[in-house]
Automatic annotation (TrEMBL):
GO terms for molecular function: enoyl-[acyl-carrier-protein] reductase (NADH) activity. It holds the Pfam family adh_short_C2. InterPro entries: Enoyl-ACP_Rdtase_NADH, NAD(P)-bd_dom_sf, SDR_fam. It comes from Leadbetterella byssophila (strain DSM 17132 / JCM 16389 / KACC 11308 / NBRC 106382 / 4M15). It is an enzyme of class 1 (oxidoreductase). Keywords: Fatty acid biosynthesis, Fatty acid metabolism, Lipid biosynthesis, Lipid metabolism, NAD, Oxidoreductase. The active site is at Y150 (proton acceptor), Y160 (proton acceptor). PANTHER family: ENOYL-[ACYL-CARRIER-PROTEIN] REDUCTASE, ENOYL-[ACYL-CARRIER-PROTEIN] REDUCTASE [NADH], CHLOROPLASTIC. NAD(+) binds at G15, S21, I22, I95, K167. This is Enoyl-[acyl-carrier-protein] reductase [NADH]. Its EC number is 1.3.1.9. Belongs to the short-chain dehydrogenases/reductases (SDR) family. FabI subfamily.
Length: 271
């Protein structure tokens, strides 16, 4: 059931690859709340064709854009304001990829060309989105920009490799651009630090299934699902959160504030 939270709002939603994607769920919820938006993903991801189903369901145009290409991003923003008939109110950055993680490279054996790609795709692209938006003056006053991140930006998780560095940079960009965009246009910028979630990006991380179970047992409310995340992101796009900016917001069932849970303690109890 929708509450009309995004009635009359326009936006861009990136990163919907298949029905497990967090962005996929955000698109469905945003539609339910009355928003109109465009969808975007890397041209190579389009080949899977899944996104066409979502576009049809949401009555949204798909605008292919490689998040590392400034030219693609410029087209994404100009075309979006054109087809949606005005400036934007929200943008979702739901993009992450590390060739080092994907190919199982440990943190002490990184390929530096791939490291640059991880940073470019997963962090610098967020800056590019906002710089292009600012230059095109594509976002309305009190607009909201959200990127998805993970707690490995603050605390070390052995399996997260160079993605941890990319996420730390992403969160820093949210603060720096949040200040700038706030002063300029009252636009807010936040990151949502999400629980481990069973998606293509999540599953690409070695040991993910074990870790998912661990986090589930640690968090007093259990892991937050992609659907839960979509609910939260919709509130951040809505007018109910107009003074929240430059924050990294944990959406993890309480995991980040739990030292150890009774369930995990029980599991490691000596015989
Ligand atoms: P996903 O695999 O469904 O989404 C990742 C998206 O990034 C895909 O749609 C992919 O096509 C897109 N992408 C990759 N390279 C790109 C490029 N060069 N240009 C444009 N798009 C590109 O997985 P998920 O989990 O929905 O990921 C979304 C975001 O959530 C990512 O930033 C991820 O790091 C973050 N996140 C995921 C968690 C998880 O456990 N799944 C936990 C915390 C954060």
């Amino acid at each position: 059931m929708g509450y009309g939270l995004l009635k009359g709002k326009r936006g861009i939603i990136s990163g919907a690859l298949d029905e497990n994607s967090i962005a996929w769920k955000v698109a469905q919820r945003a539609k339910e709340e009355g928003a109109i938006f465009t969808l975007t993903n890397a041209p190579i991801a389009m080949r899977m064709g899944e996104i066409n189903k979502l576009a049809e369901e949401c009555n949204a145009e798909i605008i292919p854009a490689d998040a590392t290409s400034l030219e693609d991003i410029e087209k994404l923003f100009s075309r979006s304001t054109e087809v949606l008939g005005g400036k934007l109110d929200f943008v979702l950055h739901s993009i992450g990829m590390s060739p080092n993680v994907r190919k199982g490279k440990e943190y002490g054996d990184l390929n530096y060309d791939w490291y640059k790609q991880s940073i470019d795709i997963s962090a610098m692209s967020f800056h590019k989105f906002m710089q292009v938006a600012e230059k095109q003056d594509a976002i309305n006053e009190w607009g909201s920009i959200v990127a998805l991140t993970y707690m490995a930006a603050q605390r070390t998780f052995s399996f997260y490799s160079d993605m941890a560095d990319a996420k730390a940079m992403l969160e820093s960009i949210a603060r720096s651009y949040g200040y700038r965009y706030g002063k300029l246009k009252n636009v807010r910028v936040n990151t949502v630090s999400q629980s481990p979630t069973k998606t293509r990006a999540g599953g690409g991380i070695g040991g993910f299934d074990h870790f998912y179970e661990f986090a589930e047992k640690m968090a007093p409310l259990g892991n937050a699902s992609a659907d839960d995340c979509a609910d939260y992101v919709v509130t951040l796009f809505s007018d109910l959160t107009r003074k929240v900016t430059m924050q990294n917001l944990f959406h993890d069932g309480g995991f980040s504030m739990t030292g150890i849970s009774a369930e995990v303690l029980e599991m490691i109890k000596p015989e």
